[in-house]
């Protein structure tokens, strides 16, 4: 009987032992999916503040590029896209002169309307306030009732009209002027 068992072990019986050993290795070895989950957990282990720091460092290096050097450190994707559009000639800068002498460089697409310019001014001011603090809310309805945008003595009153129809080109200056009261 012993001889029969040893012969089985040497012939077919040995293969089953090897199969069992292979099964044990397979069962004890971590799955590729488990390894991926562990890697994801490691990635998630970074706190949000550290991820933000890493992102801001990378962004700061990116903004040092000559094309993007005019942008602030806390740049938004919208500002980066605008700067790239300027470089490719798809956008233009309209310099808006405020009553206090400050000039706001407003970037709009080439075929922008007066309404697009007003929206861009609003966005510019919102970003400026976020970065510097200051007034929390501006009533833009009041602003547009009280002030006009003027280019070479002509009021930009029709919101649907294109800037190029008024003759406004890249780097032209538009004045932010108080409306005169009608009596």
TrEMBL record:
<dbReference type="InterPro" id="IPR040610">
    <property type="entry name" value="SNRNP25_ubiquitin"/>
</dbReference>
<dbReference type="InterPro" id="IPR000626">
    <property type="entry name" value="Ubiquitin-like_dom"/>
</dbReference>
<feature type="region of interest" description="Disordered">
    <location>
        <begin position="1"/>
        <end position="47"/>
    </location>
</feature>
<feature type="compositionally biased region" description="Basic and acidic residues">
    <location>
        <begin position="16"/>
        <end position="26"/>
    </location>
</feature>
<dbReference type="InterPro" id="IPR029071">
    <property type="entry name" value="Ubiquitin-like_domsf"/>
</dbReference>
<dbReference type="GO" id="GO:0005689">
    <property type="term" value="C:U12-type spliceosomal complex"/>
</dbReference>
<feature type="domain" description="Ubiquitin-like">
    <location>
        <begin position="90"/>
        <end position="183"/>
    </location>
</feature>
<dbReference type="InterPro" id="IPR039690">
    <property type="entry name" value="SNRNP25"/>
</dbReference>
<dbReference type="GO" id="GO:0000398">
    <property type="term" value="P:mRNA splicing, via spliceosome"/>
</dbReference>
<feature type="compositionally biased region" description="Acidic residues">
    <location>
        <begin position="31"/>
        <end position="44"/>
    </location>
</feature>
<keyword id="KW-0687">Ribonucleoprotein</keyword>
<dbReference type="Pfam" id="PF18036">
    <property type="entry name" value="Ubiquitin_4"/>
</dbReference>
<protein>
    <submittedName>
        <fullName>U11/U12 small nuclear ribonucleoprotein 25 kDa protein</fullName>
    </submittedName>
</protein>
């Amino acid at each position: 009987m012993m001889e029969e068992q040893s012969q089985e072990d040497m012939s077919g019986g040995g293969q089953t032992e090897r199969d069992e050993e292979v099964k044990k290795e397979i069962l004890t070895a971590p799955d590729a999916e488990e390894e991926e989950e562990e890697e994801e957990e490691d990635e998630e282990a970074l706190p949000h503040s550290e991820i933000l720091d890493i992102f801001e460092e990378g962004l700061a290096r990116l903004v040092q590029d000559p094309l993007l050097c005019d942008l602030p450190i806390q740049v938004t994707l919208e500002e980066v896209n605008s700067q790239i559009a300027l470089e490719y000639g798809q956008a233009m800068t309209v310099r808006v002169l405020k009553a206090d002498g400050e000039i706001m460089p407003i970037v709009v697409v080439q075929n922008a309307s007066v309404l697009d310019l007003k929206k861009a001014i609003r966005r510019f001011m919102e970003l400026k306030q976020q970065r510097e603090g200051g007034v929390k809310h501006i009533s833009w309805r009041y602003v547009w009732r009280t002030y006009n945008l003027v280019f070479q003595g002509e009021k930009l009153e029709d919101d649907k009209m294109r800037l190029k129809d008024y003759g406004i080109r890249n780097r032209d200056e538009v004045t932010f002027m108080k409306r005169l009261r009608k009596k």
